[in-house]
Amino acid sequence: MKAELKLYGNQHGSVSVAPVPEPFTTIEPMHDSYGRRINYLRISLTDACNLRCVYCMPEHMTFMPRNQLMTKDELLFLVRVGASLGVNKIRLTGGEPTIRPDIVELVQAIAATPGIRDLAMTTNGVLLDKLARPLAEAGLNRVNISIDTVEPYKFHHITRWGELDDVWRGIRAAEEAGLHPIKLNCVVVRNFNENDIAELARLTIDNTWEVRFIEMMPFGEVTDFQQVNVVTFQEMRERVESVFGPLEEASYDYVDPSRPFRIPNAKGTLGFISSVTEPFCQGCGRVRLTADGKLRLCLLRDDEVDLLTPLRDGAGFEEMRALMRGGAYHKPWGHGLGQGVIAETRAMNQIGG
Ligand code: SAM
Ligand code: SF4
User: Fold this and answer.
1) 42, 96, 189, 221, best to mutate for ligand 2 pocket (most atoms within 8 Å of CB)
2) CATH architecture of 28-350
3) CB 3.0–4.6 Å: which of 154, 186, 241, 352 could bond 93 by disulfide?
């Protein structure tokens, strides 16, 4: 049986795109030129956000016009293309993914896509109080929630207007909805929250959460700020150990970017994401889909393949498969921060982290 997807609400009005074989015949895994299997797609659902974190975007950020964003049907088409090429893991991100009005429907449709085994979301948590349950019921497996401090006034300062209580409510709602394991993402920024690392780490003693400390990365328009204020993995670790003593190191698979540690006897774990000082590119099987439908091959490099324009121009399923497979093949080995190469064309919210 053939299914026909319709595109609605973009600049073209209502347009038919090529039929997707239903179900697609075979899964043919894609690899890059270094032999890494590409099975993980991170999708930025929108570049817009209800916060303005200092490390992510300028305060007066201009967002893309809506007609440049992928519609629900375009996005689902590309998810099916990816799944037919062995993508089995998807993370929805942004901007803030929960501000998309069709977020629950999107999650439901992606979760039902043959081949997708793991569907996660990275969110600032502000809207999770209301959305955690519907998202879990729609098929979302788990969430990473960003929280950079346990001090309400600092949270307000880092996010430019956010309320920390909204995030705590979101975390509780995610727990109750069963979106486990809960991971908390903390970007560490000098002169903002480096003194809060130990208190954030303390959360793992009584909660089965993974608290992940992330080195700030440079992008787009705020690179000066981002480069000057990096707190390194080593410094973060020393700060935690100065309070809790030596951390236990867990085994590291080089696939998850987060290096796992534990405060002795804690229920949860700590993770350190050292993209800047100790990159983990050898195990990277990720590609990203930007909010405007570009396949981004490395978070920290500007190489992209435009998928949305050919799709809107009427390319069929097989053609889109060839484009995605060909793009993924050219995934660069790793980022070039050590050589002074900085991704400049986009801010983090357009790529999706
Ligand atoms: N709005 C959601 C959130 O904040 O979780 C999802 C999008 S956000 C771009 C994804 C992740 O990227 C978040 O954990 C955020 O803290 C992180 N992030 C943003 N800018 C960053 C930067 N310059 N360096 C490192 N991580 C960053
Ligand atoms: Fe928004 Fe997330 Fe960027 Fe903060 S990190 S401004 S919450 S997209």
Assistant:
1) 96
2) Alpha-Beta Barrel (3.20)
3) 352
